[in-house]
Amino acid sequence: MKLLLSFVLLGALHQWAAANKILFDGRIPLWTKNETLDASADPFLTAVKGRSYPATHYSGFLGKHFHPTPLWNGSPEQVISIRIDNTSVFIPGNGTGVPQSGFRRTELIAQRNGSASNADRVMESGVTRFHFSIKADQRWPLNYTHEYQVVFIEPSDGSHVFGIQLGSPFTNPTGILPAPYARWFKVLDHNLNVLFKTPFTTDVWHNFAIRVDWENRTLQVLYSIESRRLASVTEVVSNPTVPLGDAGKGDFHVGLLKLPLVNPADSPANQGDVVHYGLQEGTVEGLLYSGIFVERIS
Ligand SMILES: *[C@@H]1O[C@H](CO)[C@@H](O)[C@H](O)[C@H]1NC(C)=O
Ligand SMILES: *[C@@H]1O[C@H](CO)[C@@H](O)[C@H](O)[C@H]1NC(C)=O
Ligand SMILES: *[C@@H]1O[C@H](CO)[C@@H](O)[C@H](O)[C@H]1NC(C)=O
Ligand SMILES: *[C@@H]1O[C@H](CO)[C@@H](O)[C@H](O)[C@H]1NC(C)=O
Ligand SMILES: *[C@@H]1O[C@H](CO)[C@@H](O)[C@H](O)[C@H]1NC(C)=O
Ligand SMILES: *[C@@H]1O[C@H](CO)[C@@H](O)[C@H](O)[C@H]1NC(C)=O
Protein backbone atom coordinates (compact mmCIF):
# COMPACT_ATOMS: atom_id res chain seq x y z
CA MET A 1 0.00 0.00 0.00
CA LYS A 2 2.74 2.34 1.01
CA LEU A 3 4.77 1.47 -2.06
CA LEU A 4 1.79 2.06 -4.32
CA LEU A 5 1.24 5.46 -2.75
CA SER A 6 4.79 6.56 -3.39
CA PHE A 7 4.47 5.41 -6.98
CA VAL A 8 1.41 7.61 -7.38
CA LEU A 9 3.22 10.54 -5.79
CA LEU A 10 6.27 10.00 -7.95
CA GLY A 11 4.07 10.03 -11.01
CA ALA A 12 2.58 13.30 -9.90
CA LEU A 13 5.96 14.82 -9.13
CA HIS A 14 7.26 13.67 -12.46
CA GLN A 15 4.60 15.64 -14.33
CA TRP A 16 5.53 18.77 -12.37
CA ALA A 17 9.26 18.18 -12.50
CA ALA A 18 9.02 17.73 -16.24
CA ALA A 19 7.59 21.24 -16.40
CA ASN A 20 10.11 23.94 -17.15
CA LYS A 21 10.21 27.46 -15.84
CA ILE A 22 6.68 28.89 -15.89
CA LEU A 23 6.67 32.28 -17.57
CA PHE A 24 2.96 32.98 -17.27
CA ASP A 25 0.37 31.15 -15.17
CA GLY A 26 -3.29 31.54 -16.06
CA ARG A 27 -4.41 28.63 -13.85
CA ILE A 28 -6.85 30.19 -11.41
CA PRO A 29 -6.43 29.19 -7.74
CA LEU A 30 -9.58 28.07 -5.91
CA TRP A 31 -9.63 31.20 -3.75
CA THR A 32 -9.56 33.65 -6.66
CA LYS A 33 -12.85 35.54 -6.97
CA ASN A 34 -14.75 36.55 -10.08
CA GLU A 35 -14.21 40.22 -9.14
CA THR A 36 -10.60 39.77 -10.35
CA LEU A 37 -12.10 39.73 -13.85
CA ASP A 38 -14.05 42.95 -13.30
CA ALA A 39 -10.86 44.57 -12.02
CA SER A 40 -9.00 43.26 -15.11
CA ALA A 41 -6.31 42.22 -12.64
CA ASP A 42 -3.54 39.63 -13.24
CA PRO A 43 -3.37 37.12 -14.73
CA PHE A 44 -5.90 38.34 -17.34
CA LEU A 45 -6.71 41.64 -18.98
CA THR A 46 -10.46 41.64 -19.70
CA ALA A 47 -10.79 44.69 -21.97
CA VAL A 48 -11.88 42.72 -25.05
CA LYS A 49 -15.61 42.30 -24.41
CA GLY A 50 -18.91 44.10 -24.86
CA ARG A 51 -19.21 47.43 -23.06
CA SER A 52 -22.77 46.98 -21.77
CA TYR A 53 -21.76 44.89 -18.79
CA PRO A 54 -18.76 44.22 -16.54
CA ALA A 55 -16.43 41.35 -17.38
CA THR A 56 -18.23 38.96 -15.01
CA HIS A 57 -21.31 39.11 -17.25
CA TYR A 58 -19.23 37.41 -19.94
CA SER A 59 -16.77 35.30 -17.95
CA GLY A 60 -16.29 33.68 -14.57
CA PHE A 61 -14.49 31.11 -12.46
CA LEU A 62 -16.58 28.03 -11.73
CA GLY A 63 -15.35 27.09 -8.25
CA LYS A 64 -14.43 23.67 -6.94
CA HIS A 65 -17.38 21.68 -8.32
CA PHE A 66 -16.28 21.92 -11.95
CA HIS A 67 -13.26 19.82 -12.82
CA PRO A 68 -10.39 21.37 -14.79
CA THR A 69 -8.32 19.29 -17.19
CA PRO A 70 -6.92 16.29 -15.29
CA LEU A 71 -3.70 16.57 -17.31
CA TRP A 72 -1.84 18.34 -14.53
CA ASN A 73 -2.73 15.69 -11.97
CA GLY A 74 -5.77 17.51 -10.74
CA SER A 75 -3.76 20.51 -9.60
CA PRO A 76 -6.34 22.69 -7.86
CA GLU A 77 -7.50 25.20 -10.39
CA GLN A 78 -10.85 26.69 -11.36
CA VAL A 79 -12.44 26.18 -14.74
CA ILE A 80 -12.89 29.47 -16.61
CA SER A 81 -16.24 30.03 -18.37
CA ILE A 82 -16.18 32.46 -21.29
CA ARG A 83 -19.36 33.52 -23.10
CA ILE A 84 -20.60 35.84 -25.81
CA ASP A 85 -24.06 37.26 -26.41
CA ASN A 86 -25.50 39.92 -28.66
CA THR A 87 -23.97 42.68 -26.52
CA SER A 88 -20.44 41.30 -27.06
CA VAL A 89 -19.44 44.11 -29.42
CA PHE A 90 -15.89 45.27 -28.68
CA ILE A 91 -15.09 48.95 -29.17
CA PRO A 92 -11.33 49.47 -29.48
CA GLY A 93 -9.46 52.45 -28.07
CA ASN A 94 -11.14 52.01 -24.70
CA GLY A 95 -14.51 52.79 -26.19
CA THR A 96 -13.42 55.62 -28.50
CA GLY A 97 -12.95 53.60 -31.71
CA VAL A 98 -15.34 52.17 -34.29
CA PRO A 99 -17.52 49.40 -32.76
CA GLN A 100 -16.65 45.94 -34.09
CA SER A 101 -20.29 45.20 -34.88
CA GLY A 102 -19.46 42.29 -37.19
CA PHE A 103 -17.78 40.29 -34.42
CA ARG A 104 -18.96 39.03 -31.09
CA ARG A 105 -16.02 38.64 -28.75
CA THR A 106 -14.97 37.98 -25.17
CA GLU A 107 -11.28 37.33 -24.72
CA LEU A 108 -8.93 37.08 -21.79
CA ILE A 109 -5.44 38.38 -22.51
CA ALA A 110 -2.35 37.24 -20.61
CA GLN A 111 -0.84 40.07 -18.56
CA ARG A 112 1.84 40.57 -15.91
CA ASN A 113 1.75 43.42 -13.43
CA GLY A 114 -1.31 44.78 -15.21
CA SER A 115 0.36 44.89 -18.61
CA ALA A 116 -0.03 42.56 -21.57
CA SER A 117 3.20 43.79 -23.15
CA ASN A 118 5.06 42.90 -19.93
CA ALA A 119 3.75 39.35 -20.28
CA ASP A 120 4.58 39.27 -23.99
CA ARG A 121 8.19 40.31 -23.33
CA VAL A 122 8.58 37.46 -20.83
CA MET A 123 6.76 34.80 -22.90
CA GLU A 124 8.01 35.58 -26.40
CA SER A 125 11.74 34.98 -26.77
CA GLY A 126 13.83 31.90 -27.39
CA VAL A 127 11.61 28.82 -27.46
CA THR A 128 8.45 28.79 -25.33
CA ARG A 129 5.40 26.56 -25.08
CA PHE A 130 1.81 27.80 -24.76
CA HIS A 131 -0.55 25.44 -22.91
CA PHE A 132 -4.35 25.55 -22.84
CA SER A 133 -7.18 23.07 -22.47
CA ILE A 134 -10.65 23.55 -23.93
CA LYS A 135 -13.98 21.84 -23.26
CA ALA A 136 -17.45 22.37 -24.71
CA ASP A 137 -19.93 24.20 -22.50
CA GLN A 138 -23.08 22.22 -23.24
CA ARG A 139 -25.22 24.95 -21.72
CA TRP A 140 -24.25 27.35 -24.52
CA PRO A 141 -23.25 25.50 -27.73
CA LEU A 142 -21.47 27.19 -30.62
CA ASN A 143 -23.04 27.61 -34.05
CA TYR A 144 -20.78 25.72 -36.45
CA THR A 145 -21.93 27.64 -39.50
CA HIS A 146 -19.80 30.52 -38.17
CA GLU A 147 -16.04 30.81 -37.74
CA TYR A 148 -14.60 31.09 -34.23
CA GLN A 149 -11.07 31.99 -33.23
CA VAL A 150 -10.61 30.67 -29.71
CA VAL A 151 -6.87 30.98 -28.89
CA PHE A 152 -4.27 33.09 -30.71
CA ILE A 153 -1.25 35.35 -30.42
CA GLU A 154 -1.90 38.61 -32.24
CA PRO A 155 0.89 40.94 -33.38
CA SER A 156 -0.12 44.57 -33.98
CA ASP A 157 -0.81 43.92 -37.69
CA GLY A 158 -3.80 41.78 -36.67
CA SER A 159 -2.32 38.52 -37.97
CA HIS A 160 -1.90 35.48 -35.69
CA VAL A 161 1.42 33.76 -34.93
CA PHE A 162 -0.74 30.67 -34.47
CA GLY A 163 -4.47 30.26 -33.98
CA ILE A 164 -7.05 27.68 -32.94
CA GLN A 165 -10.14 27.79 -35.13
CA LEU A 166 -13.55 26.16 -34.79
CA GLY A 167 -16.55 26.23 -37.10
CA SER A 168 -16.83 27.15 -40.78
CA PRO A 169 -14.14 29.57 -42.02
CA PHE A 170 -15.70 32.87 -43.16
CA THR A 171 -15.93 33.15 -46.94
CA ASN A 172 -17.34 35.86 -49.20
CA PRO A 173 -19.51 34.79 -50.92
CA THR A 174 -20.82 32.34 -48.33
CA GLY A 175 -20.06 28.72 -49.24
CA ILE A 176 -21.89 25.53 -48.29
CA LEU A 177 -22.50 25.52 -44.54
CA PRO A 178 -21.44 23.99 -42.31
CA ALA A 179 -18.03 23.65 -44.01
CA PRO A 180 -16.15 20.30 -43.89
CA TYR A 181 -14.55 19.77 -40.46
CA ALA A 182 -16.65 22.55 -38.92
CA ARG A 183 -16.83 20.62 -35.66
CA TRP A 184 -13.11 20.04 -35.56
CA PHE A 185 -10.39 22.07 -33.91
CA LYS A 186 -8.01 23.44 -36.53
CA VAL A 187 -4.56 24.61 -35.46
CA LEU A 188 -3.45 27.26 -37.96
CA ASP A 189 -0.03 28.70 -38.63
CA HIS A 190 0.52 32.39 -39.41
CA ASN A 191 -0.26 31.81 -43.10
CA LEU A 192 -3.54 30.04 -42.14
CA ASN A 193 -2.33 26.57 -43.14
CA VAL A 194 -3.99 23.85 -41.05
CA LEU A 195 -1.17 22.16 -39.12
CA PHE A 196 -3.40 19.79 -37.18
CA LYS A 197 -7.10 19.05 -36.84
CA THR A 198 -9.07 16.91 -34.41
CA PRO A 199 -12.80 16.50 -33.66
CA PHE A 200 -14.22 18.71 -30.92
CA THR A 201 -15.88 15.91 -29.01
CA THR A 202 -17.94 17.01 -26.04
CA ASP A 203 -17.49 15.84 -22.44
CA VAL A 204 -13.69 15.66 -22.62
CA TRP A 205 -10.93 18.19 -22.10
CA HIS A 206 -8.85 18.81 -25.22
CA ASN A 207 -5.28 19.67 -24.18
CA PHE A 208 -3.10 21.68 -26.56
CA ALA A 209 0.46 22.91 -26.33
CA ILE A 210 2.03 25.02 -29.05
CA ARG A 211 5.81 25.23 -29.06
CA VAL A 212 6.92 28.52 -30.58
CA ASP A 213 10.53 29.18 -31.59
CA TRP A 214 10.55 32.98 -31.65
CA GLU A 215 14.00 33.27 -33.21
CA ASN A 216 13.79 30.59 -35.91
CA ARG A 217 10.07 31.11 -36.53
CA THR A 218 8.84 27.55 -36.16
CA LEU A 219 5.83 25.89 -34.53
CA GLN A 220 5.13 22.45 -33.15
CA VAL A 221 1.75 21.20 -31.95
CA LEU A 222 1.24 18.81 -29.03
CA TYR A 223 -2.17 17.43 -28.11
CA SER A 224 -3.98 14.97 -25.88
CA ILE A 225 -7.34 14.49 -24.22
CA GLU A 226 -8.11 14.34 -20.52
CA SER A 227 -5.20 12.97 -18.48
CA ARG A 228 -3.27 11.45 -21.37
CA ARG A 229 0.28 12.69 -21.81
CA LEU A 230 0.73 15.38 -24.41
CA ALA A 231 2.14 13.96 -27.65
CA SER A 232 3.64 15.74 -30.64
CA VAL A 233 1.11 15.71 -33.48
CA THR A 234 3.28 17.68 -35.91
CA GLU A 235 6.96 17.99 -36.64
CA VAL A 236 8.69 21.27 -35.91
CA VAL A 237 7.39 23.22 -38.89
CA SER A 238 8.49 26.48 -40.39
CA ASN A 239 6.25 29.54 -39.82
CA PRO A 240 8.09 31.89 -42.16
CA THR A 241 5.44 34.55 -42.77
CA VAL A 242 5.62 35.83 -39.17
CA PRO A 243 7.29 39.27 -39.25
CA LEU A 244 10.79 39.25 -37.77
CA GLY A 245 11.43 40.64 -34.31
CA ASP A 246 8.89 42.56 -32.24
CA ALA A 247 6.56 42.99 -35.22
CA GLY A 248 5.96 39.24 -35.03
CA LYS A 249 5.09 39.21 -31.33
CA GLY A 250 1.83 40.09 -29.63
CA ASP A 251 -0.81 39.46 -27.00
CA PHE A 252 -1.89 35.94 -26.03
CA HIS A 253 -5.72 35.76 -26.36
CA VAL A 254 -8.01 33.04 -25.01
CA GLY A 255 -11.77 33.18 -25.51
CA LEU A 256 -14.40 33.53 -28.21
CA LEU A 257 -14.15 35.64 -31.33
CA LYS A 258 -17.14 34.82 -33.52
CA LEU A 259 -17.14 36.00 -37.13
CA PRO A 260 -20.35 36.97 -38.95
CA LEU A 261 -21.80 35.56 -42.15
CA VAL A 262 -22.08 37.79 -45.20
CA ASN A 263 -25.24 39.92 -45.08
CA PRO A 264 -26.63 40.14 -48.65
CA ALA A 265 -28.25 43.44 -47.68
CA ASP A 266 -24.83 45.08 -47.15
CA SER A 267 -23.07 46.87 -50.00
CA PRO A 268 -20.58 44.70 -51.93
CA ALA A 269 -17.74 46.72 -50.42
CA ASN A 270 -18.96 46.05 -46.88
CA GLN A 271 -19.74 42.35 -47.39
CA GLY A 272 -16.10 41.41 -46.89
CA ASP A 273 -15.65 43.69 -43.85
CA VAL A 274 -16.06 41.01 -41.20
CA VAL A 275 -15.06 43.38 -38.42
CA HIS A 276 -17.90 45.86 -38.90
CA TYR A 277 -20.63 44.19 -41.00
CA GLY A 278 -22.46 40.91 -41.47
CA LEU A 279 -25.02 38.65 -39.84
CA GLN A 280 -25.00 37.56 -36.22
CA GLU A 281 -27.85 35.74 -34.45
CA GLY A 282 -27.04 37.24 -31.06
CA THR A 283 -27.18 33.87 -29.29
CA VAL A 284 -25.46 33.11 -25.98
CA GLU A 285 -22.51 30.78 -26.64
CA GLY A 286 -19.63 29.65 -24.48
CA LEU A 287 -16.53 27.55 -23.95
CA LEU A 288 -14.67 26.26 -20.91
CA TYR A 289 -10.93 26.68 -20.40
CA SER A 290 -8.32 25.46 -17.93
CA GLY A 291 -4.63 24.58 -17.83
CA ILE A 292 -3.51 27.90 -19.33
CA PHE A 293 0.20 28.57 -18.80
CA VAL A 294 3.38 29.27 -20.72
CA GLU A 295 6.73 27.60 -20.06
CA ARG A 296 10.26 28.13 -21.26
CA ILE A 297 11.76 25.33 -23.37
CA SER A 298 15.06 27.00 -24.15
C1 LIG B 1 -18.43 33.25 -10.92
O1 LIG B 1 -18.82 33.24 -12.30
C2 LIG B 1 -19.32 31.99 -12.74
C3 LIG B 1 -19.53 32.02 -14.25
O2 LIG B 1 -20.11 33.20 -14.67
C4 LIG B 1 -20.60 31.68 -11.97
O3 LIG B 1 -21.11 30.42 -12.40
C5 LIG B 1 -20.26 31.62 -10.51
O4 LIG B 1 -21.44 31.39 -9.75
C6 LIG B 1 -19.62 32.91 -10.04
N1 LIG B 1 -19.14 32.75 -8.68
C7 LIG B 1 -19.63 33.43 -7.67
C8 LIG B 1 -19.04 33.13 -6.35
O5 LIG B 1 -20.49 34.27 -7.82
C1 LIG C 1 -11.07 53.82 -20.19
O1 LIG C 1 -12.06 54.81 -20.09
C2 LIG C 1 -12.64 54.95 -18.81
C3 LIG C 1 -13.72 56.00 -18.88
O2 LIG C 1 -14.66 55.66 -19.88
C4 LIG C 1 -11.57 55.32 -17.80
O3 LIG C 1 -12.14 55.34 -16.51
C5 LIG C 1 -10.45 54.30 -17.84
O4 LIG C 1 -9.41 54.70 -16.99
C6 LIG C 1 -9.92 54.13 -19.24
N1 LIG C 1 -8.96 53.03 -19.24
C7 LIG C 1 -7.80 53.10 -19.86
C8 LIG C 1 -6.94 51.88 -19.78
O5 LIG C 1 -7.43 54.11 -20.44
C1 LIG D 1 6.32 42.80 -11.77
O1 LIG D 1 6.55 43.64 -10.65
C2 LIG D 1 7.48 43.09 -9.74
C3 LIG D 1 7.52 43.98 -8.50
O2 LIG D 1 7.57 45.33 -8.87
C4 LIG D 1 8.84 42.98 -10.42
O3 LIG D 1 9.77 42.40 -9.53
C5 LIG D 1 8.69 42.09 -11.64
O4 LIG D 1 9.90 42.05 -12.36
C6 LIG D 1 7.61 42.61 -12.55
N1 LIG D 1 7.41 41.61 -13.62
C7 LIG D 1 7.23 41.96 -14.89
C8 LIG D 1 7.08 40.85 -15.85
O5 LIG D 1 7.17 43.11 -15.24
C1 LIG E 1 -26.63 29.50 -36.74
O1 LIG E 1 -26.27 30.43 -37.74
C2 LIG E 1 -27.07 30.32 -38.92
C3 LIG E 1 -26.48 31.26 -39.94
O2 LIG E 1 -26.55 32.59 -39.53
C4 LIG E 1 -28.51 30.61 -38.60
O3 LIG E 1 -29.29 30.47 -39.76
C5 LIG E 1 -28.99 29.67 -37.53
O4 LIG E 1 -30.30 30.01 -37.12
C6 LIG E 1 -28.07 29.73 -36.32
N1 LIG E 1 -28.45 28.70 -35.37
C7 LIG E 1 -28.77 28.99 -34.11
C8 LIG E 1 -29.13 27.83 -33.25
O5 LIG E 1 -28.79 30.14 -33.68
C1 LIG F 1 17.79 27.85 -35.18
O1 LIG F 1 18.45 27.96 -36.42
C2 LIG F 1 19.85 27.91 -36.29
C3 LIG F 1 20.46 28.23 -37.64
O2 LIG F 1 19.78 27.54 -38.65
C4 LIG F 1 20.29 26.54 -35.77
O3 LIG F 1 21.65 26.48 -35.60
C5 LIG F 1 19.59 26.32 -34.43
O4 LIG F 1 19.85 25.00 -33.99
C6 LIG F 1 18.11 26.50 -34.54
N1 LIG F 1 17.53 26.44 -33.22
C7 LIG F 1 16.56 25.59 -32.90
C8 LIG F 1 16.06 25.69 -31.50
O5 LIG F 1 16.07 24.83 -33.71
C1 LIG G 1 -28.22 42.29 -31.87
O1 LIG G 1 -27.75 43.61 -31.74
C2 LIG G 1 -27.89 44.38 -32.92
C3 LIG G 1 -27.28 45.74 -32.65
O2 LIG G 1 -25.96 45.60 -32.24
C4 LIG G 1 -29.35 44.51 -33.28
O3 LIG G 1 -29.46 45.18 -34.52
C5 LIG G 1 -29.96 43.13 -33.41
O4 LIG G 1 -31.36 43.25 -33.62
C6 LIG G 1 -29.71 42.32 -32.16
N1 LIG G 1 -30.17 40.95 -32.36
C7 LIG G 1 -30.88 40.32 -31.45
C8 LIG G 1 -31.27 38.92 -31.79
O5 LIG G 1 -31.21 40.84 -30.40
List the helices and strands and how they pair.
Blueprint: H1 2-18, E1 22-25, H2 35-38, E2 44-48, H3 55-58, E3 59-61, E4 80-84, H4 92-95, E5 104-110, H5 116-123, E6 127-136, E7 147-155, E8 162-167, E9 184-189, E10 194-199, E11 206-213, E12 218-225, E13 231-232, E14 237-238, E15 250-258, H6 268-271, E16 285-296
Antiparallel strand pairs: 1-16, 2-5, 3-4, 4-16, 5-15, 6-11, 6-16, 7-8, 7-15, 8-9, 9-10, 11-12, 12-13, 12-14
One 2-acetamido-2-deoxy-beta-D-glucopyranose binds at residues 86, 89, 101, 282.
Task: Outline the structure in words.
- The protein is an alpha+beta fold and 298 residues long.
- It has a single domain (2-296), classed as Sandwich (Jelly Rolls).
- The chain has six helices and 16 strands.
- Strands 1, 3, 4, 6, 11, 12, 13, 14 and 16 form a nine-stranded antiparallel sheet that branches. A seven-stranded antiparallel sheet has the order 2-5-15-7-8-9-10.
- It is globular and about 55 Å long.
- The relative contact order is 0.21.
- One 2-acetamido-2-deoxy-beta-D-glucopyranose (NAG) binds next to loops.
- The site of one 2-acetamido-2-deoxy-beta-D-glucopyranose has 2 residues, from helix 4.
Query: How many structural domains are formed by the residues?
Result: 1
Ligands in the model, by name, code or SMILES, are: 2-acetamido-2-deoxy-beta-D-glucopyranose
Provide the succession of SSEs. HEHEHEEHEHEEEEEEEEEEHE
Number of strands: 16
N-to-C CA distance: 39 Å
> Helical element count?
6
Largest sheet: 9 strands, antiparallel
Low-confidence stretches: 1-17
Structural class: alpha+beta
- CATH C-level class is Mainly Beta
Strand content: 25-35%
- Rg over CA atoms: 19 Å
